[in-house]
Design a protein that fits this description.
The protein is an alpha+beta fold. It is built from 9 helices and 11 strands. The strands form 2 sheets. Strands 1, 2, 3, 4, 5, 6 and 11 form a 7-stranded mixed sheet that branches. The protein is globular.
């Protein structure tokens, strides 16, 4: 297959995985975006310019995750490799459990889709499978690709599927982002190989309830986000995050660890009309004020809309 274009632009949202009980399956796309512009070069050079999150930290050549994903997609469809110039404008925090790596992978795969002569060869099913090969699990890649809330699952060794879930308009995510970072591998490394049968049964019920709470019954979000599968085991490596989750939940707020953490995601409920800044008050506002008391200690409270479009890519002239 040949290339059909030499320039493309991709926009990909942040994501939050797990949402409490939906470990490695449920995810939510958030309206905080990375943008990547890709230009194919006649030479074999690879240049990566990064502005924002990760500038002066991430690789600037072939090891950059967007480049790796793009090349993975070109190899998959038999398209020729090429030199590349990437300009990345990053807003998704790195190492905070908001899907920065999945965003980079999806951005690279969709950039390849925009560049090749037959973009249908990299349809959403293929992109999700390739993203899972690179990421190891699809819980962040699915909402990054499709937008909204998603549930993802595997069917055999090579098939990965995802479906969009309904989200009630009163669900209002709030990310509480710390200054500290935590690698996904470290957070996963403390999980046990086995869990008690009773905890697994509890988790299945809560995951099913969460689908109902997200779509039709936001009043059930607090019990629906209870978890016994991963957050408790991770307390030793993110004690401050779990203490914040405990404090918010004790005040009736549906708070969970976002992905592998250490960001805390609040699935708040909108509780009134929008103010002059366009933001709607939520049932979490008072609780957050009570917990922090005006002293943030390195945390940032970031209200975020749900991104319903997912990743977008287009060719440039």
């Amino acid at each position: 297959m040949r290339l059909g274009a030499d320039r493309a632009r991709v926009r990909v949202p942040a994501t939050s995985a797990n949402l409490g009980p939906g470990f490695d399956a449920l995810g939510l796309a958030l309206a905080l975006h990375d943008e990547v512009e890709v230009r194919a070069l006649g030479s074999g050079d690879v240049l990566v310019d990064v502005v924002g999150e990760g500038a002066d930290e991430v690789p600037s050549g072939d090891d950059h995750l967007v480049v790796r994903a793009l090349r993975h997609a070109l190899d998959h469809v038999g398209a020729p490799q090429t030199g590349l110039h990437l300009t990345c404008r990053n807003r998704i925090p790195h190492g905070r459990g908001l899907g920065s790596s999945a965003g980079a992978v999806v951005a690279g795969l969709l950039a390849a889709r925009a560049l090749v002569a037959e973009p249908e060869s990299l349809d959403d099913d293929v992109v999700l499978r390739l993203a899972t090969e690179l990421e190891g699990h699809p819980d962040n890649a699915a909402p990054a690709l499709l937008g909204g809330a998603t549930v993802a699952w595997s069917e055999g060794a090579d098939a990965v599927r995802a479906a969009r879930l309904a989200v009630h308009p009163d669900v209002a995510p709030v990310a509480v982002v710390p200054s500290s970072r935590l690698s996904t591998s470290h957070a996963r490394g403390v999980l046990p190989a086995q869990v008690p049968h009773g905890d697994a049964a509890f988790q299945a019920g809560r995951a099913a309830l969460l689908v109902e709470a997200l779509g039709r019954r936001p009043d059930l979000l607090l019990p629906a986000t209870e978890d016994r599968l991963h957050q408790g085991y991770r307390r030793p490596v993110m004690a401050e995050s779990l203490a914040l989750v405990d404090a918010l939940r004790a005040r009736g707020v549906a708070a969970v660890v976002s992905g592998a953490g250490p960001t805390v995601l609040v699935l708040a409920r909108a509780a009134g009309e929008a103010g002059g800044d366009g933001a709607r008050p939520t049932d979490a506002d008072d609780a957050l004020q009570q917990v922090f008391g005006g002293v943030m200690g390195g945390w940032r409270i970031v209200p975020l809309a749900i991104d319903t479009a997912g990743a977008e890519a287009r060719r440039l002239p």
